[in-house]
């Protein structure tokens, strides 16, 4: 009887162990499934956060692009300021000489621009003792050679000048129908009043650099 019971008991124990093993296996599979599901949810959540972060980053980047135009405008303003500063390095007289020459003579190719001051009371024709005299201080601008041109004028301080029509070559007394005194008096009595435009800054600067007083 005991011999029969032992095999029966062993068989029962084996069945119980197998049953327990199946439960453990199922539980393990269930745990693995839960872990896999949790991992997939974490990945999806992470992807969602990344997309949200990328979207926020893109939105924040847009204002930076919109700031590009003000920066460019700032650069233009700085460029203009530099040009003004360059012109302001010179005296108002030097700027005036260049502007008068550009408007009245218009010769930008002169290699040199000479300036001569003539005081009131000096002879209009320095080569004739019978010449009339200037009633005011005048300025003479001339190129390096006669062909460059010449202009004699006085400033009025309001952007206008009085141009004296001085000949490039003085005629002799024998060539005139009137006396030299009458001839020169006519010159100082018939000045031409002209408004001087600011002109092109670059051209003005180039001429200022050619000044020789």
UniProtKB/TrEMBL annotation:
Residues 25-40 have a biased composition (Basic and acidic residues). Transmembrane segments: none annotated. Keywords: Signal. This is Lipoprotein. Residues 57-68 have a biased composition (Acidic residues). Residues 25-89 are annotated as: Disordered. It comes from Rossellomorea aquimaris. Residues 73-89 have a biased composition (Polar residues). The lineage of its organism: Bacteria, Bacillati, Bacillota, Bacilli, Bacillales. Residues 1-19 form the signal peptide. It comes from the Bacteria.
């Amino acid at each position: 009887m005991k011999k029969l019971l032992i095999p029966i008991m062993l068989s029962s124990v084996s069945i119980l162990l197998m049953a327990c093993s199946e439960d453990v296996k199922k539980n393990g599979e269930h745990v693995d499934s839960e872990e896999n599901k949790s991992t997939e949810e974490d990945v999806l959540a992470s992807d969602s956060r990344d997309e949200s972060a990328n979207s926020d980053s893109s939105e924040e980047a847009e204002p930076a692009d919109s700031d590009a135009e003000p920066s460019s405008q700032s650069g233009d303003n700085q460029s203009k300021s530099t040009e003004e500063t360059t012109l302001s390095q010179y005296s108002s007289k030097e700027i005036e000489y260049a502007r008068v020459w550009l408007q009245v003579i218009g010769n930008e190719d002169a290699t040199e621009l000479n300036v001569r001051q003539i005081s009131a009371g000096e002879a209009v024709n320095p080569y004739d003792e019978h010449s009339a005299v200037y009633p005011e201080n005048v300025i003479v601008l001339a190129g390096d050679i006669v062909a460059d041109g010449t202009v004699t004028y006085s400033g009025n301080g309001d952007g206008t000048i009085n141009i004296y029509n001085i000949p490039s070559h003085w005629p002799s007394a024998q060539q005139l129908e009137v006396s030299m005194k009458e001839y020169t008096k006519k010159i100082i009595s018939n000045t031409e009043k002209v408004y001087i435009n600011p002109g092109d800054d670059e051209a003005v600067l180039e001429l200022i650099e050619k000044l020789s007083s």
